[in-house]
From TrEMBL:
A molecular function GO annotation: methyltransferase activity
Organism for this UniProt entry: Neobacillus pocheonensis
Protein name listed in UniProt: Class I SAM-dependent methyltransferase
EC number(s) reported in the record: 2.1.1.-
Any Gene Ontology biological process: methylation
Length: 120
């Protein structure tokens, strides 16, 4: 069962900064296809601006670990705090290939526009 939403929260992001074409347009169908539900733990591979992770955390009431190996600053932490989900979103400066999580840590793994950048 999908959450009842009024509108598409990814298309209402202020100052969206997508890092790829169609990033925010594809986000809602992807989240709905994976059947994200409140309380789940989500892994996002390749967060870019962090806005997709933040929007999922806020609107689906889940926790999100999000990976950005080339994160330069604390921009995402500032944004998640502004959005009131600082306790639900954690960015890790690590590659997807280096993850050390045990099996079944996450309920859902999502990635938008990032897989083609992961060589191995
Ligand atoms: C085209 S951007 C898409 C970002 C965001 N998902 C969006 O749609 O706006 C691809 C992202 O994948 C990240 N990335 C590339 N290789 C990665 C890897 N091995 N592990 C995790 N993230 C990676 C890049 O740093 C970049 O943030």
């Amino acid at each position: 069962m999908n959450l009842k939403l009024t509108g598409n929260p990814f298309l209402n992001i202020e100052n969206p900064k997508p890092w790829g074409p169609g990033s925010f347009e594809i986000a809602l169908p992807l989240v709905q296809a994976t059947n994200i539900r409140p309380g789940m733990r989500i892994l996002e591979v390749g967060d870019g601006s962090g806005k997709i992770a933040t929007t999922i955390a806020k609107n689906w009431n889940v926790s999100v670990i999000t990976l950005e190996p080339w994160a330069q600053n604390n921009e995402i932490q500032i944004y998640v705090a502004e959005q009131g989900v600082e306790n639900q979103v954690l960015q890790m400066k690590i590659k997807a290939q280096s993850l050390l999580f045990v099996d079944n840590t996450f309920n859902v793994i999502i990635s938008i526009g990032s897989f083609e950048m992961i060589a191995d």
